[in-house]
Each structure stands twice: as C-alpha cells, then as structure tokens.
Amino acid sequence: MESLKLPPHDGSVISVVDMHTGGEPLRIVVSGFPDIIGGSVLAKRRYVREKLDHLRQLLIFEPRGHYDMYGALVVKSELNEAHLGVLFMHNEGYSTMCGHAVIALGRFAVDYGLVTAPQSPETQVNIHCPCGLVKAFVEYSNQNTGKVRFHSVPAFSFATDITVDVPGHGEVIVDISYGGAFYAFVSAEKFGLDISHSRTRDLVDAATAVTNAVKRKVKLHHPSSPDLAFLYGTILTDGKDAFSDEPTANVCVFADAQVDRSPTGSGVTARIALQYHKGLIQLNQTRTFQSGATGSLFTGKAVQETECGDFKAVTVEVAGHAHYTGTASFVLENDDDLKNGFLLK
C-alpha cells in the first residue's frame, strides 16, 4: 500500500511526535507553528497564550486530542547552555514546568538530533522550561535512548498547615510547595477517599474543591517572576510522607480538572521539597512515587540544598521512563464548524 497522502486541507500542516511517560501523554510539535516571538522563554509563553492559543486548542482539544491531552512546543532559548526551550500546553493553557514532559523530551532531544554528540552511558540535555533551566540525563547506549533523570529548578515549601474552608468538607489543612509549579498537598483520607481505589471523578471533585479553596485564601509569590506565582493544582496523597522503601501514591489534578496519569514529575519535586522541609527525608534518600491512576512509578530524591530568594530550597532529582506512541500530521478545513476543537466536561 502506498504511503498515505495528506487529505484536502486549508492552511499549514502541524506535525507531531506522540509519547507518554508513565501513561501521561505528550504531544511534541515538530513543525507547522509560526515563529514564536519573544526575548525569553517566559515572553514566548505570553506571546503564544495571547496570539496563538487557537493552535493549542486545535492540538489539545477534541477531535484531535482529548480533555486530558498534554503538549509541548519546542522553542529557541535565550540561554547559551540550553539545547532547547519548551512551552507546555494543557486543557486550560500553559504550565511553567512539567516533569513527565522533561523525561520524554530528554529522549526526544537525543533521538531527533537536538543534541549533536550524544555520549554513553548518559547524555546531558539542558531544557529551558518557563520556570528555568532543567538538566536531564538520558541513558544512551548503542544509539538507543532509555530512562531519564532530571535535576529540578530550586524547589521549596511555600507554606505548611494552612486551614482552608472546602465546601462540603469543612476546614481542611493543606500544605503548599513549589517544584517548578505550585501545588497544594493533602491526604485523600481527609475526604474518605483512597488514592488507588476510589473513583477518579470523586478524586477530581475533592482535589478541585481544594484548589479553589486555596486560590480564594492564599496569595502566592515567587522570587523570580510573577509569571510563576499561580496554583497549578492539588495533589492528593496516601499520607505516607515519612521516609520508607515502599512506594507512596498520589494523584495530581491540575489546570481545568485535568488528571495526570503519571506520578507527576513537578509534583514529585514539590513533594520531596516539602518532605525535606519537614525533616521527613534526608539528602540522597530515594523515594518511589506511584501514580494512583495507572500504578506507574517515578523515583525522587533531594540532591542538594540551595536557595530561591528568601526560601530555603533543594534541587530534586526525578527519574522515569518515556515511550514513543507514534507520529501524526494534523490539518483543518475552513468549512469545518468544529475545526478549532471542543472539550466535553
């Protein structure tokens, strides 16, 4: 059978490589976007949000994507040491950090030649995320890539034991921590739920209620940029925060009630920072984190103390494995009433 030709279409063709990390999808744009204007990755993020958001919707929304689709747009970085810059896309807009995407992009950067001279047994890939430079280390042997670990931007506990009023549940005590994005943390048991066995909808409803309650009460700030000062979501945990060799499970609900299928790389980063702040773990103690949604695993550990403004912080190493699922070329026809996409909630 001859190779498939593109169907009739209007405008440019957007080509992507699809991957997943621990079950969480990543759609990497390789061509078809116009030039992204901006002197920094954060400025490019603002430009895409203001001028090109219809393209995010085209790729992430149905019928080409789905409610929980996630995307990455590779852009030029203003940092000389960066191999690539990246903008993260989800159902609501644009994140500042995404660990599962960094793990996938590490493999992608080596496999697609963004790193010109890969080294065995491990190749370093410097990825400039909106939150800052993240260093990924990709297993490389016999021209094959494998597992990836990355070192985070400075991660820190923002506030602990905050009481918020959650409608239907009363007063709930939560922690807030930063791992490239801000998350609220609370045990699922406080809502009578089990991370691995409760209905996903019930977990989503509880986490969304917490997110909204925290947004009403807490004003976030970040020492580097106001663009980073927003609550990305809530991570429900199994409450097992003390160090153990056994996995600890969590589910992250972010953006517009989007559910992460992986253990959440930036969430693992923030959770490690929180545990370190509370004295529950020490430097270089590796913990295993399990997705309550799929059972997939990441590992995480605090590898170095550092600072972020006035916050005592740590650099966190997170490790996981991404896999390819395919490639695609997306088109639109101008007479398609649904050409810009839609979401079912």
Protein model, in words:
Pfam families: Pro_racemase (PF05544). This protein is α+β, with helices and mostly antiparallel strands and 345 residues long. It has two domains: 10-151 and 324-330, Diaminopimelate Epimerase, Chain A, domain 1, CATH 3.10.310; 156-320, Diaminopimelate Epimerase, Chain A, domain 1 (Roll), CATH 3.10.310.10. It has five helices and 18 strands. Strand 9 and strand 10 form a beta hairpin. Helix 3 packs across helix 5 (265-277). The radius of gyration is 20 Å and the shape is globular.
Summarize the topology.
Layout: E1 10-21, E2 24-31, H1 41-51, H2 53-60, E3 71-75, E4 84-89, E5 94-95, H3 99-111, E6 122-129, E7 132-141, E8 144-151, E9 156-166, E10 170-178, E11 182-187, H4 200-217, E12 231-237, E13 248-254, E14 258-259, H5 265-277, E15 287-291, E16 297-308, E17 311-320, E18 322-332
Protein structure class: alpha+beta
Q: What's the CATH architecture of the largest domain?
A: Roll
Beta content comes to 35-45%
Give a count of the beta strands, DSSP E runs of length 2 or more.
18
User: Helix tally?
Assistant: 5
- Give unreliable regions as ranges: none
Helix content: 10-25%
Main beta sheet strand tally, sense and closure: 18 strands, mixed
Computed Rg: 20 Å
User: In the CATH hierarchy, what is the class of the largest domain?
Assistant: Alpha Beta
CATH topology of the largest domain: Diaminopimelate Epimerase, Chain A, domain 1
What is the CATH superfamily of the largest domain? Diaminopimelate Epimerase, Chain A, domain 1
SSE arrangement, N to C: EEHHEEEHEEEEEEHEEEHEEEE
Structural domain count: 2
C-alpha geometry: globular
